[in-house]
């Protein structure tokens, strides 16, 4: 296992903008709204305007559940807030019609986890049942720390978190990424973006319950 796969509380893009990003969005900070606007313009509005943003909506976990196979999502490339509104309306119609929400075939955790376990076993590693099924044990095999890091992000976005902001560095199959995680009065979401020396699409991740509040927030910050 490589502990360099992921690191929480790692410096990221916002550290080039704010002296202390961890206090910039605190409710006691008198410039909180300005800081939030600046941060979202950098992390979301710019890739949105350049066609380099995907909206990822997660759902499926509820009542404290966190089985990887029960976490579903849908990805939507978006280039405007009108596109975001169309995704919100899509989920709203599903709710009103008591229909399943949109769902991609690809798995965020279960599939990659099975592949990582298979790779470890192919290398001769023996993984007990606890290592296979307990997320905190996943760092015991290659790529497991990355999976565990994203598991924690998805879990916090589903069930909430006290810290208003968190910066994470993570190596992914698409390359090195920064995860900027926000838990605010206005909404809860994360932005997964390429590190400053990497390329690729940014991903705005949120739980389906956060579609409306985050859209309202972006309408203010991206105006």
Provide an overview of this structure.
This protein is of the alpha+beta class and 223 residues long. The protein has one domain. The chain contains 7 helices and 7 strands; from the N terminus they run βααββααααββββα. Strands 1-4-5-6-7-2-3 form a 7-stranded mixed sheet, with helices on both faces. The chain is globular, with a radius of gyration of 18 Å. The model has no long low-confidence stretch (mean pLDDT 95).
Low-confidence sequence ranges = none
Q: Name the shape in a single word.
A: globular
- Which class do the helix and strand fractions yield? alpha+beta
The largest β sheet comes out as: 7 strands, mixed
Q: Proportion of β residues? A: 15-25%
* Tally of alpha and pi helices: 7
Give the strand line-up of the largest sheet: 1-4-5-6-7-2-3
Task: Quote the distance from N terminus to C terminus.
Answer: 44 Å
Mean pLDDT: 95
Please, how many domains? 1
Please estimate the helix content: 25-40%
The H/E string reads EHHEEHHHHEEEEH
Total beta strands: 7
The radius of gyration over CA amounts to: 18 Å
What are the main properties of this structure?
7 helices, 223 residues, 7 strands, single chain, alpha+beta
In short:
With 223 residues, the protein is an alpha+beta fold.
């Amino acid at each position: 296992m490589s502990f360099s796969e992921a690191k929480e509380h790692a410096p990221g893009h916002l550290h080039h903008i704010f002296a202390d990003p961890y206090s910039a969005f605190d409710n006691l900070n008198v410039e909180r709204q300005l800081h939030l606007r600046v941060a979202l313009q950098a992390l979301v509005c710019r890739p949105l305007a350049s066609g380099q943003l995907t909206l990822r909506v997660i759902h499926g976990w509820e009542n404290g559940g966190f089985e990887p196979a029960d976490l579903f999502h849908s990805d939507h490339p978006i280039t405007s807030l009108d596109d975001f509104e169309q995704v919100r309306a899509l989920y709203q119609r599903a709710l009103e019609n008591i229909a399943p929400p949109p769902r991609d075939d690809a798995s965020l955790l279960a599939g990659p986890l099975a592949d990582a376990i298979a790779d470890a076993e192919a290398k001769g590693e023996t993984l007990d049942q606890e290592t296979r099924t307990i997320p905190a044990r996943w760092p015991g095999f290659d790529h497991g720390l990355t999976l565990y890091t994203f598991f924690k992000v998805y879990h916090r976005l589903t069930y909430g978190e006290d810290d208003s902001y968190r910066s994470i560095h993570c190596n992914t199959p698409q390359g090195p990424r920064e995860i900027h995680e926000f838990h605010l009065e206005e909404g809860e979401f994360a932005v997964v973006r390429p590190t400053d020396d990497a390329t690729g699409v940014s991903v705005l991740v949120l739980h389906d319950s956060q579609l409306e509040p985050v859209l309202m927030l972006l309408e203010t910050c991206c105006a």
